[in-house]
């Protein structure tokens, strides 16, 4: 219905412009801006409720919900009234939890004072009147579930699904009702009308009326089955979204529940990684500033690391996950404790190959590999025209023990020596895959500490490499703009190949004033998979793009554009450690977007 209303509004605007009714057009636009039903767009209604909560407008929140109740919910059968009441209860709890999280006790007290008469007789609110007097309610067994991101996300998607199904299933009085009765007479007078009104406007309106009314009559789904699993329950049922791809209807696999922005960096991001537990993020910019921050329940910087020497790489340790490895441009790696906020060790890796380009910690937590490369002519950010054109530089790949803080061995690189740009372990640490500046992918057996396979993968450098979900293949992105899947059991046989735009591969370009352009060579992860390995997140000019992985002859199928950025995204990460997946997209203006996704399970 939302799309039909929006199209009708556009047609009415077109007609008013055609007739020259500018005053009426201004009045229409003004009325639309204040439309409480938001053109039956569920996302706009949810945004309005969240804005009222964030501004502590309790009166406005109650009035808006009461309007929705009168206009929409009152039309439902009595059997759905308990669902509406549960949603209202959860909405009020969402508000009061927000006041506590924002440390605004006055608004918390105000809520219970104003709502006392209404809520004191309701059993589900009996324990909540003690909330303002509990020192740490987020640690109280009664209230702690409501302080989690999972509860908030589940409530929002439940409300979203309820409204979506409601708009699809119930018949709301709209301009279409009168138009349907007049379709026959309109058809009889069509020849006369075509002489007065542009044909495109008339026939678009008639077709729109027919299609909108037909789709409303055809839809017979049951809203009650779509609203089970509210925050008070244990399960969550989500409405399946459908999108058009290539003219065919396909299931939309993810819902973007929210998108937040981290703005503590002041220069382009190089690396951005979530830790193994999915609780913290470490991000590194080109100025060498590292930020460690949490996002649940709110975004909060936990540590800021400033280094006298330039930092080029970072990696979370697997065990314990509070430790962070930081690679420098002077041949050293620091082991940093993010809880104690101090350096534990500083290891001198190499006195000749000073740039630590890549770090990868073994899943066992006992060792890590690091790539050390000789100094290059330019840094990660250069001006246009200075992009990398020199031959591959020399480099080493080393294995270090995290307990003894000593080097265990140096891997043989054949052909070599060459700079290794990217490294990744498989799930148990028995295999290590690397991508190098010479375009080669090398696979190492970590039980024997020797090279198992190597093959020419790209024309130019390999920028990013990862194992597939089943670990029978590896994926890589190279300087040639190709995204390739390789079979590791058949000497690097190519299983599929996809072409990506420069926005996804780099070098990344940010334009400025007076013709200035900044170019950044890829350093961080350029792609990341979801928990089942069926979808991949890549960079783009204004956000992250999520694709469904298909066979090579089908190609990548775009399923969701995260958006939200004003500068090119240069690195991404996708964490599925929590029930709701977290996508990170970091850009050249220093902004990091955290998008929370809910997977649509078939």
From TrEMBL:
User: Single GO molecular-function term?
Assistant: phosphatidylinositol 3-kinase inhibitor activity
Kindly state which keywords UniProt assigns to this record, in alphabetical order.
Endosome, WD repeat
Is Cell inner membrane found in the keyword set? Answer: no
Q: What ranges does the record give for the region Disordered, renumbered to this chain?
A: 217-239
> What is the annotated localization of this protein?
Early endosome membrane; Late endosome membrane
**By its UniProt entry, which SMART domains does this protein fall under?**
WD40
Tell me where the WD repeats sit in this chain: 420-454, 455-496
Every ARMC9 CTLH-like domain range: 47-169
- What membrane topology term does the record carry? Peripheral membrane protein
Q: Where is the composition biased (Polar residues)?
A: 224-239
InterPro entries in the cross-refs: ARMC9_CTLH-like_dom (IPR056327), WD40/YVTN_repeat-like_dom_sf (IPR015943), WD40_repeat_dom_sf (IPR036322), WD40_rpt (IPR001680), WDR91 (IPR039724)
User: A GO CC term?
Assistant: late endosome membrane
GO aspect biological process, one term: negative regulation of phosphatidylinositol 3-kinase/protein kinase B signal transduction
The entry's family comment says: Belongs to the WD repeat WDR91 family.
Record-given protein name: WD repeat-containing protein 91
Organism source for this protein?
Cyprinus carpio
């Amino acid at each position: 219905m939302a799309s039909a209303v929006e199209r009708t509004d556009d047609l009415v605007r077109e007609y008013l412009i055609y007739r020259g009714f500018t005053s009426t057009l201004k009045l229409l636009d003004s009325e639309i801006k204040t439309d409480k039903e938001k053109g039956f767009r569920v996302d706009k209604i949810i945004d309005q409720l969240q804005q009222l909560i964030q501004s502590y407008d309790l009166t406005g929140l109650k009035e808006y919900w009461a309007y929705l109740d009168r206009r929409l919910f009152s039309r439902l059968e009595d059997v759905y009234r308990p669902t509406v009441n549960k949603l209202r209860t959860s909405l009020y709890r969402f508000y009061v939890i927000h006041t506590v999280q924002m440390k605004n006790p006055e608004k918390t007290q105000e809520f219970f004072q104003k709502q006392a008469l209404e809520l004191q007789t309701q059993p589900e609110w009996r324990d909540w009147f003690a909330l303002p007097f509990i020192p740490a309610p987020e640690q109280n067994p009664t209230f702690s579930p409501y302080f989690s991101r999972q509860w908030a996300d589940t409530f929002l998607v439940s409300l979203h699904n309820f409204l979506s199904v409601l708009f699809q299933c119930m018949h709301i009085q709209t301009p279409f009702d009168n138009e349907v009765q007049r379709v026959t007479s309109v058809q009889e007078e069509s020849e006369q009308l075509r002489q007065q009104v542009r044909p495109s406007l008339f026939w678009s309106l008639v077709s729109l009326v027919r299609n909108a009314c037909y789709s409303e009559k055809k839809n017979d789904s049951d809203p009650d089955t779509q609203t089970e699993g509210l925050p008070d329950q244990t399960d969550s049922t989500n409405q399946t979204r459908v999108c058009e791809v290539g003219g065919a209807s396909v299931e939309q696999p993810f819902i973007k529940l929210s998108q937040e922005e981290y703005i503590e960096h002041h220069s382009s991001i190089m690396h951005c990684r979530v830790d193994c537990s999915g609780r913290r993020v470490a991000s590194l910019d080109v100025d060498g500033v590292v930020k460690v921050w949490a996002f649940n329940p709110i975004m909060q910087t936990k540590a800021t690391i400033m280094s006298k020497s330039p930092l080029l790489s970072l990696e979370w340790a697997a065990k314990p996950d509070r430790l962070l490895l930081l690679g420098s441009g002077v041949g050293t790696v620091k082991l940093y404790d993010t809880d104690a906020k101090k350096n534990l060790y500083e290891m001198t890796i190499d006195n000749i190959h000073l740039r630590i380009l890549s770090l990868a910690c073994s899943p066992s937590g006992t060792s890590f590999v690091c790539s050390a490369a000789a100094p290059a002519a330019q840094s990660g950010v250069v001006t246009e025209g200075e992009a990398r054109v020199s031959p591959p530089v020399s480099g080493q790949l080393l294995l270090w023990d995290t307990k003894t803080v000593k080097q265990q061995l140096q891997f043989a690189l054949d052909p070599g020596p060459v700079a290794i740009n990217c490294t990744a372990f498989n799930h148990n640490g028995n295999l290590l895959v690397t991508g190098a500046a010479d375009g080669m992918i090398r696979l190492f057996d970590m039980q024997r500490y020797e090279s198992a396979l190597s093959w020419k993968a790209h024309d130019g450098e390999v920028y990013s490499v990862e194992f597939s979900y089943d670990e029978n293949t590896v994926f890589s992105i190279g300087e040639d703009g190709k995204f390739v899947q390789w079979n590791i059991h058949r000497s690097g046989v190519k299983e599929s190949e996809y072409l990506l735009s420069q926005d996804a591969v780099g070098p990344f370009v940010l334009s400025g004033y007076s013709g200035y352009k900044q170019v950044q060579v890829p350093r961080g992860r350029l792609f990341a998979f979801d928990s089942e390995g069926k979808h991949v997140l890549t960079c783009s000019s204004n956000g992250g793009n999520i694709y469904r992985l298909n066979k090579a002859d089908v190609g990548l199928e775009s399923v969701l554009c995260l958006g939200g950025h004003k500068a090119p995204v240069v690195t991404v990460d996708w964490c599925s450690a929590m029930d709701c997946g977290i996508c990170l997209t970091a850009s050249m203006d220093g902004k990091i977007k955290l998008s929370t996704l809910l997977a649509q399970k078939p």
